Fold this sequence. Notes:
Layout: E1 2-7, H1 16-31, E2 36-41, H2 52-62, H3 69-86, E3 90-96, H4 104-113, E4 120-123, E5 127-130, E6 136-142, H5 159-169, E7 174-180, H6 189-207
Parallel strand pairs: 1-2, 1-3, 3-6, 6-7
Antiparallel strand pairs: 4-5
Helix pairs in contact: 1-6, 2-3
Amino acid sequence: MKLLHISASPRGERSESLALARTFLDAVGVADPSVEVDHYDLWDGTLPSFGPDAAAAKMAVFSGAEPDGPEGLAWRRVHDTFAWFDTADLLVFSVPMWNAGIPYILKQFIDVVSQPGMVFAFDPVTGYRGLLTGKRAVVIYTSGVYGPERGPAFGADFQAPYLEDWLRWIGIDDITEISLRPDLVRADAAEARRLAHDRARAAGAAFV
């Protein structure tokens, strides 16, 4: 069994979402040492862009054509990224909140792999069909100010609804959420952090 951890935080050792992911993954390793764990730091410079050539290639594929030249090269990079993503049985996303949503680098990843014949099929009568059925996902959400019990002056949540909708759209319905969201600027942040790590530890132990 292979687990892929996709990290959307650029903050390294200071990242709350990465710290929770480590707690979760440590618990997975204790529960089942045979699980192969791979990490993808979206900020490491290897994620391809999705610009004019890739967009043209996508439209070519939609119309039944085979991309070539610069478009073909862009499409091969897209396919290689998807193929690596698709090798995982278990997916873990660590996702800090940025401006009420997800970091742009994670949206870039989503735009790269969300391609016809890869994560979805499309029928003009029945619409989209997700192709990644059978996989399971854990999503770790953190926010520095937003909390679900706080008013609109402290932000809104377009982070979890967007990512969960995308996961279900590509065919993944088994989704576990771990969050540290009471906000990290309050006096009781340490307790909120402890409880979140307890939840991550328990989820990791039960995940495999």
